Amino acid sequence: xxxxxxxxxxxxxxxxxxxxxxxxxxxxxxxxxxxxxxxxxxxxxxxxxxxxxxxxxxxxxxxxxxxxxxxxxxxxxxxxxxxxxxxxxxxxxxxxxxxxxxxxxxxxxxxxxxxxxxxxxxxxxxxxxxxxxxxxxxxxxxxxxxxxxxxxxxxxxxx
Length: 159
What we know:
This protein is an all-alpha fold. The protein has helices at 3-26, 29-46, 53-73, 75-79, 91-96, 101-107, 110-121, 126-133, 137-158. The chain folds into 2 domains: 1-97, Rna Polymerase Sigma Factor, Chain: A, CATH 1.10.1740; 98-159, Winged helix-like DNA-binding domain superfamily/Winged helix DNA-binding domain (Arc Repressor Mutant, subunit A).
């Protein structure tokens, strides 16, 4: 793959996945867009070499998760206005605020939401999620189990 086309090719192939991952980490569509842009801009500027497509995909997801963590620690996280306070949602934001189980998963604490989302919606194994998030497999397994339990309690509370 030519270096000048790497970022563009990666964006076409993984852009939506990186956006969804960033949204899962931040809970904010506009911040997720910014993070996605930053991830692919860094890929374009750094000229990183990858072993294969999976290595590139893992790199992009790891970068999105790290930027999501930085966002949650930043002052902007505390100074933002919640979407529920805004009278109308934009079309893009409404698409990500669908009702049902996915919305309930994303409403869980971030550590559980990210693991459940990556496992059930993106189809990653515990081992792959551990590599993406930079955590031990046992930790991911525990977070997955606890996230399921919290989700079950939320679902029973709605019934």
